[in-house]
């Protein structure tokens, strides 16, 4: 019997948000769709002791080979999306609606003299308006119960309507004012049809006008001291607002759109697309792509995705009954040539296609849902690659082979530098052991001597300081000197703090040292290692532009495949070092580091620096000030103002 633990998500990776989940078999067929208020709590229940599960649930989890989930905003969205995907995939283990011809809808029989509101399943009929579908019939009845306070339309069958007309007394709903009782002539056919049309208009989405009208009438009743009427209208407004809880996965009638969202970092991007047809989410697709130099930002990613995704549909798209190119494509940002791209899509479809960014309402809410799913997919992608033991082992083996190392680089250290146009230089050193970040070993540096020589000199200074500490912390102590000699070839770890018994900060050398940069940075680091006599540490550099790996004394870079797990590990180390350096730089800047740009100005002491910052409020505003503005401050002359402006020129940005 297959073990569900083989595909169980890693602990803590399942979100606690509401959503819909899908179990798939080894062939990728969806075998079960479910919804949950908390995805984490519900999915964890499937991976409990198999013996304690219901027999059918046990069969399902042992048949499945993969589980996916989609995050939504509310339980209502999860309910609706569950319905859509059960109809879409027809999963074998979903049996609740297996015998139904269709899911229930709210039908309004506009083809009758006295239209009726009722729950309906079956084929569509001419002259009847349908709202839904709903996942449960009780959801329709709850909606009706709320709305009949405001729209007292007929809900009874033809037989009941005829019988009460014959006896001349309305049913119970007529007595409690949830039916206008057209059966006994309380309202005319036209008046009753008007009530039903208002009801249909409300469910179609035109809700604001109705709410505003009721609020106006409530206010008027209150001013006329008709407090019972005002209280009833207040309750009616509350009923409408409860019924107005709109679903982001269900849009207005006839909506035909694709909603696209991205989640990205400097190297990769996750793309999610929801296909909305007939106002319902009919499908969801997602990819993770490598970002190239030609697609650096979201508008460029949008252009690339739209052209590639819809380009294959150029032949005969207009003649297909289910056109793969929708009337609307909703994207997070418009590309620079959005108009030309829109015209191209229009030509492919054979009718107008709108490419736009949703700004408000249900479409904006759905776009936010798609964005949440893109972020979730991107997080899962990174966790899978980082947390997969097989992938980590493959990455270390690839690096050993590609870089010609004697052993797998079980400990990797990476150095990155951050500065403001050559000033206020800081650096970071991050550590990866067995392919995983070891944050307790991270270190950060304030670069002093190397600041004047740019990144190359800064890298050299950090490498020198790091390995000087390594050498000093591995000097033998008295206890080490009297210890017995180790076997030939064995490594001795002398960097243990005798007081705490723990390793010192820089006691362990890496198997591989990675610097952020190309050949100049690598050569600078190699010179420092040679100067210190360190020969057992491998060295390489990773250049951002083309992701080339540079080795010392090698005129040509090593090119690793873009899908290489080894390259991915180097990229993760480089990106983590960059993040750590930037974070440290911003922390120092927030504590007044930028004010040190004024330290070297002649005649400008601490009091005057403080006066400048207090007057202008920020360094950004101070840099925008001219000589006259600064010279006009008490205690400042023109010469001092000119010196300040000269010192601040060109110092913006990172």
From TrEMBL:
Residues 259-529 form the UvrC family homology region profile domain. Keywords: Cytoplasm, DNA damage, DNA excision, DNA repair, Excision nuclease, SOS response. Residues 208-243 form the UVR domain. It comes from the Bacteria. Pfam families: GIY-YIG (PF01541), HHH_5 (PF14520), UVR (PF02151), UvrC_RNaseH (PF22920), UvrC_RNaseH_dom (PF08459). It is found in: Cytoplasm. GO terms for cellular component: cytoplasm; excinuclease repair complex. CDD domains: GIY-YIG_UvrC_Cho (cd10434). SUPFAM superfamilies: C-terminal UvrC-binding domain of UvrB (SSF46600), GIY-YIG endonuclease (SSF82771), RuvA domain 2-like (SSF47781). Residues 16-95 form the GIY-YIG domain. One of its GO terms (molecular function) is DNA binding. InterPro entries: GIY-YIG_endonuc, GIY-YIG_endonuc_sf, GIY-YIG_UvrC_Cho, Hlx-hairpin-Hlx_DNA-bd_motif, RuvA_2-like, UVR_dom, UVR_dom_sf, UvrABC_protein_C. One of its GO terms (biological process) is nucleotide-excision repair. The keyword DNA damage applies. The UvrABC repair system catalyzes the recognition and processing of DNA lesions. UvrC both incises the 5' and 3' sides of the lesion. The N-terminal half is responsible for the 3' incision and the C-terminal half is responsible for the 5' incision. Interacts with UvrB in an incision complex. This is UvrABC system protein C. It comes from Pseudonocardia oroxyli. The gene is uvrC.
């Amino acid at each position: 019997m297959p073990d569900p633990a083989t595909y169980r998500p890693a602990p803590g990776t399942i979100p606690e948000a509401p959503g819909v989940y899908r179990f798939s078999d080894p062939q990728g067929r969806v075998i079960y769709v479910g919804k949950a208020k908390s995805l984490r709590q519900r999915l964890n229940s499937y991976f409990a002791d198999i013996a304690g599960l219901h027999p059918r649930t046990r069969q399902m989890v042992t048949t499945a080979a993969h589980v996916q989930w989609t995050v939504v905003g509310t339980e209502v969205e999860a309910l609706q999306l569950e319905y859509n995907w059960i109809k879409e995939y027809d999963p074998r283990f979903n049996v609740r609606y297996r015998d139904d011809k269709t899911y229930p809808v709210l039908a309004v029989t506009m083809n009758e003299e006295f239209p009726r509101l009722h729950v309906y399943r079956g084929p569509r009929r001419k002259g009847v308006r349908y709202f839904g579908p709903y996942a449960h019939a009780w959801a329709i009845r709850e909606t009706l119960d709320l709305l009949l306070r405001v729209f007292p339309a007929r809900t009874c069958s033809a037989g009941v309507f005829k019988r009460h007309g014959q006896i001349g007394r309305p049913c119970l709903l007529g007595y409690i004012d949830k039916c206008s009782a057209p059966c006994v002539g309380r309202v005319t056919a036209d008046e009753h049809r008007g009530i039903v049309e208002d009801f249909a208009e409300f469910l179609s989405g035109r809700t604001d006008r109705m709410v505003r009208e009721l609020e106006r009438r409530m206010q008027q009743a209150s001013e006329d001291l008709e407090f019972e009427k005002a209280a009833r209208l207040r309750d009616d407004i509350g009923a409408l607002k409860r019924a107005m809880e709109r679903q982001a996965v269900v849009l207005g009638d006839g909506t035909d759109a694709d909603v696209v969202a991205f989640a990205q970092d400097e190297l990769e991007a996750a793309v999610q697309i929801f296909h909305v047809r007939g106002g319902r989410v009919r499908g969801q697709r997602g990819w993770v792509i490598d970002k190239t130099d030609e697609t650096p930002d979201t508008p460029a990613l949008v252009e690339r995705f739209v052209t590639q995704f819809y380009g294959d549909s150029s032949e005969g798209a207009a003649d297909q009954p289910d056109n793969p190119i929708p009337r609307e494509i909703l994207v997070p940002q418009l590309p620079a040539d959005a108009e030309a791209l829109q015209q191209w899509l229009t030509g492919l479809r054979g009718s107008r296609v709108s490419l736009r960014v949703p700004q408000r309402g249900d479409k904006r809410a759905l776009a936010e849902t798609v964005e949440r799913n893109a972020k979730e997919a991107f997080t899962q992608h990174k966790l899978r690659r980082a947390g997969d033991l097989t992938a980590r082992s493959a990455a270390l083996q690839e690096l050993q082979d590609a870089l010609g190392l004697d052993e797998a680089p079980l400990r990797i250290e990476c150095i990155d530098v951050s500065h403001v146009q050559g000033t206020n230089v800081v650096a970071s050193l991050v550590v990866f052991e067995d392919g995983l970040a070891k944050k307790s070993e991270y270190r950060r540096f304030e670069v002093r001597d190397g600041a004047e020589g740019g990144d190359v000199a800064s890298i050299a200074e950090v490498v020198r300081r790091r390995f000087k500490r390594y050498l000093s912390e591995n000097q033998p102590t008295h206890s080490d000197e009297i210890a017995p000699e180790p076997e030939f070839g064995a490594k001795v770890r002398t960097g243990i703090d005798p007081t705490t018994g723990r390793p010192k900060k820089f006691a362990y050398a890496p198997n591989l040292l990675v610097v952020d940069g190309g050949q100049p940075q690598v050569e600078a680091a190699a010179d420092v290692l040679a100067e210190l006599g360190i020969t057992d540490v491998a060295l390489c550099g990773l250049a951002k532009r083309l992701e080339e790996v540079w080795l010392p004394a090698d005129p040509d870079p090593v090119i690793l495949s873009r899908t290489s797990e080894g390259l991915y590990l180097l990229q993760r180390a480089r990106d983590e070092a960059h993040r750590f350096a930037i974070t440290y730089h911003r922390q120092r800047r927030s504590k007044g580091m930028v004010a040190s740009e004024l330290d070297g100005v002649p005649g400008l002491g601490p009091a005057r620096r403080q006066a400048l910052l207090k007057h202008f409020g920020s360094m950004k505003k101070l840099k925008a000030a001219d000589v006259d503005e600064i010279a006009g401050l008490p205690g400042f002359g023109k010469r001092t103002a000119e010196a300040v402006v000269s010192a601040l020129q060109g110092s913006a940005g990172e």
